[in-house]
Design brief:
Elements: H1 9-19, E1 31-32, H2 35-44, E2 52-56, H3 62-69, E3 73-78, H4 81-94, E4 99-105, E5 110-115, E6 121-127, E7 143-147, H5 153-163, E8 169-175, H6 176-183, H7 193-201, E9 202-210, E10 215-216, E11 223-230, H8 240-251, H9 258-261, H10 263-266, H11 269-278, H12 292-302, H13 312-315
Parallel strand pairs: 2-3, 2-7, 3-6, 7-8
Antiparallel strand pairs: 1-10, 4-5, 5-6, 8-11, 9-11
Helix pairs in contact: 2-3, 5-7, 6-7, 7-8, 8-12, 11-12
């Protein structure tokens, strides 16, 4: 694909001013100013021409343009209706030959599609809260690439991995501390609920640190990129929700041993101890020492049978 003029600091501020947009902490908005960082994200995501990529929180469109430059067809999910309205205009101004093909509105979301001269949907903007999205228009996406809003990064990531099995990989920018948690191995100081739940879906690794100066407004913390590659979850006879219930209980009080932490779930500390032993683990171990397969074995041993409806509570950190 030919190079596209990506957004720079002056244009980003001008776009925001024209739309009356002021970045808010409530929505976790920190807009990317640096074209080099955008292209680094796209490279590390291994974006291929012609593939369908979902982006959460496109904001003013910095990363969206980078994905389009690589030849991807983008589905952008944006909660802010002002930004969602501005994005197609910005993209049409930067990518020659794209025009608004169609727009639809229902009780849940608004969708606007930009098509090229052959009628191919290059950009689809969905105005909706990412945590409530259960389906995406068009072909299923194969990759998630996003500068995730800081305040909901882990719930959004886990929700999309759960609901969209077509996702083969992801490259997300999050707070550096969150990146460490997502990629942490068992036994690590930062290993916890996000680490285990992400490991259910994918292998995660931190790939790069991103400084504060490439954002507007500059956040108070550094950011980092996390690469996730889909893999099969552990082989188990119990549902994911049952395994995640064990994970939540094990980390509810981090310093508790498993036999104590799981007592409420099992009905007693002796029942919890028996289940942990049956899973081949030490009842005196703590949650931070157990990998995702170990938690699946504990869930099997506990024989959890109560139904659990999927929802935000099942994927939150």
């Amino acid at each position: 694909m030919s190079a596209i003029a990506l957004l720079g600091p002056a244009e980003i501020r001008a776009l925001a001013e024209r739309a009356g947009v002021r970045p808010t902490k409530t929505l976790g908005q920190n807009f990317l100013l640096d074209a080099g960082t955008v292209r680094k994200i796209v490279r590390q995501a291994d974006v291929r021409a012609g593939e369908r990529v979902v982006e959460v929180g496109p904001g003013l469109g910095s990363l969206t343009l980078g994905l389009l430059e690589a030849g991807a067809d983008v589905v952008a999910v944006e909660i802010d209706p002002v930004l969602a309205t501005l994005l197609p205009e910005t993209v049409a101004a930067h990518v020659p030959g794209l025009t608004v093909g169609d727009a639809t509105q229902d009780d849940v979301s608004r969708t606007v599609v930009l098509r090229d001269g052959d009628g191919r949907a290059r950009l689809t903007v969905v105005t909706q809260d990412a945590l409530t999205v259960t389906a995406l228009p068009g072909e299923p996406p194969s990759a998630l690439v996003a500068n995730l809003p800081y305040n909901v990064s882990v719930p959004v990531l886990l929700t999309f991995l759960e609901r969209f099995g077509s996702l083969e990989r992801g490259l997300v920018m999050v707070q550096a501390e969150v990146a460490d948690r997502l990629a942490a191995p068992p036994g690590s100081r930062t290993y916890g609920v996000p680490s285990v739940k992400a490991a259910w879906y994918a292998a995660a690794r931190r790939t790069a640190t991103v400084g504060r100066a490439v954002f507007w407004p500059a956040p108070n913390v550094d950011s980092a990129l996390v690469r996730l590659d889909r893999r099969e979850p552990p082989t188990t006879t119990v549902a994911r929700t049952e395994v995640f219930a064990v994970v939540d209980a094990a980390f509810a009080q981090r310093r508790k041993m498993l036999r104590s932490a799981l007592a409420g779930l099992a009905g007693s500390s002796s029942a919890a101890e028996a289940a942990v032993r049956a899973a081949g683990l030490d009842p005196q171990a703590r949650g931070e020492q157990v990998d995702v397969a170990g938690f699946a074995r504990i869930a099997e041993a506990l024989g959890l049978a109560r139904p659990a409806a999927p929802g935000p509570g099942t994927v939150a950190p």
